[in-house]
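Morning run. Coffee first, then this:
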Amino acid sequence: MKIHIEDVNVEEILPVRQTVLRNGKPREECFFEGDLAEETIHLALYNNEELVAIASVLKDASEKIDTNNQYRLRGMAVVPNQQSKGYGRHLLLYAEDLIQQKAPATLWFNARTTAIEFYQKNNFQVFGKEFDIPNVGPHFLMFKNYEQT
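And here it is:
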């Protein structure tokens, strides 16, 4: 098993977004606001050259979180037959390392209700109550603050 993570073009991660996060909806519904922003980073985790997990990190602030220097994790997904093998955690830690370099900073995201436990195990906090994203499902806002070291 040879795992590596690359910074890729958004086009490379769209098939996984389409399959895992958007239930096969049309490709144009798989683009997120901010995908093409210069500072946005699209991450792809490969195992033996097979794409198994994706995530995007963009400069974006939540009005609900009162901190400066906010970044948003979007579109984190692991290919269904590769889930529960540690790839998601590996990719999350990589994204956190990127944000830690920008500390003090906050990383936040809207987590699917089914993923809350995963993020809590990685020390992210729930903020507020469950809410529904139309055509996607129930979510919670989650975040973690990073201090300067």
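Residues 87-100 form the longest helix (14 residues). Good start to the day.
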